[in-house]
Amino acid sequence: MNADTARSQHSSDLLHRLLDEAFAPYPVTADTLDLKQEVRANLAARAAELQASGTPASEAARTALAELGDIGALLESGDSVPASPSWVAEERRHRVRPKPAFAVRISVLAGALALDVLLVALQLAGVLAPDYSWIIGQLAAAVLIVGWIVADALQQETTTHYPMPRGRAIGFGIASALVVAGAGTGLQMVQGVNSAWLLLTGFCVVVAIALFTFLGVTATNRAKPWVVRRQATHSEVPNRFETDQAAASRFGIYTAVIFTVAFVAFVVLSFTIGWAWSWLALVGGFLVMMLVLARMLFGEGTR
Amino acid sequence: MTENPGADVGEVFAADLLRGHTDTIVLGVLRRGDSYGFEIFRAIRDATGGAYEIKEATLYASYRRLEKDGLVEPYWGDETQGGRRKYYRITDAGRAVYRRNVDAWVLTRGVIDNLLDTGKARP
Prior knowledge:
- The complex is a heterodimer.
- Chain A has 14 helices and no strands.
- Chain A has helices at residues 2-23, 30-52, 57-68, 72-76, 87-93, 100-125, 132-154, 166-188, 195-217, 225-234, 240-243, 245-272, 275-278, 280-298.
- In chain A, α6 (100-125) runs antiparallel to α7, α7 (132-154) packs antiparallel against α8 and α12 (245-272) runs antiparallel to α14.
- Chain A is extended, with a radius of gyration of 31 Å.
- By secondary structure, chain B is an alpha+beta fold.
- Chain B has a domain at 6-91: Arc Repressor Mutant, subunit A (Orthogonal Bundle), CATH 1.10.10.10.
- Chain B has helices spanning 6-19, 22-31, 37-47, 56-68, 92-116; strands spanning 35-36, 72-79, 84-90.
- Chain B has a three-stranded antiparallel beta sheet with strand order 1-3-2.
- In chain B, a hairpin with a 4-residue loop joins β2 and β3.
- In chain B, α2 packs across α5.
- The termini of chain B are far apart.
């Protein structure tokens, strides 16, 4: 037992040494280290498999590495990125036209939705004689139409994105429909708070939030390769807060000051003028913060 | 071996054909669930009945290509005795490309079967 563990210890040492030798000729970059780490775990798994089938430990490590093939090709065929054509040219080359049937479907649905909302609004405004059961039916129709539009649109391939898988698209459709349902049932409470409506609104909104969160957390890339490469090169646009730590901390202090002032103003205005207008102080604070952010990120300091 | 001189040529040809579809094959393995290098390698080896071993370096090149195109997303897994494993997850874009490549393959297979008159061509 002891000899066995000692031998396997020895073989894993050998593996690490062989790996070091294989990677020695290449410059140590984050990319190289990343690949080395990945290769290391896989080689260990392959060597363990070989050993399990009776290969001696030292030979297993060598065989595993020999089977790997040429890593040099991976490390050298690095970042010789050719000059990329303009966004417009690439967009034209990868252009995907919307399907005619989809365009017709969406136009009809959008028209129906607009008519539906208009009728509800006219009834609520008292221009048309309001009919309660009609309004409920129309809200239900709006919920269905919105869900359908969202699910249908997400399943379409576009110039920049692949279609979303059917299940996820339907999930987004249901979540959007629930938001509309929540807003619709919330609207009912204009005539007075009713615990049944309140419960329904809360249910719709909570489920919608949960669904959106789930879909958001499990989301993966849907962008096409040419867009991904574009984004990779565009991420090199300098971000001042990353290069200039002092600017970042200055912005933090400014934000704290702005919101302290805005909050004090909010409290003072609430007691003097009243709730109806005091919230404007917070909006003002937010606006000032965004202006400061814009000036500091992209202002004179940037190259 | 000597009884069938065509065997060697046949194997080389099949390997070439297979290599041309490495990216789609990797996406196909990842469609069944997240996986790391050696597990993907083993899945491909087992699927070919051990007749053909794809070089692991070929697979690493494939992972890099797929990652750069946004078709798979890598993440580091738990520590094992050998080191941390790099797992790959197929993205929605990866699924779409996989489906498209499989459709293209099915179409091409039919055409080639037709041209080569293998008797397996579908109408």
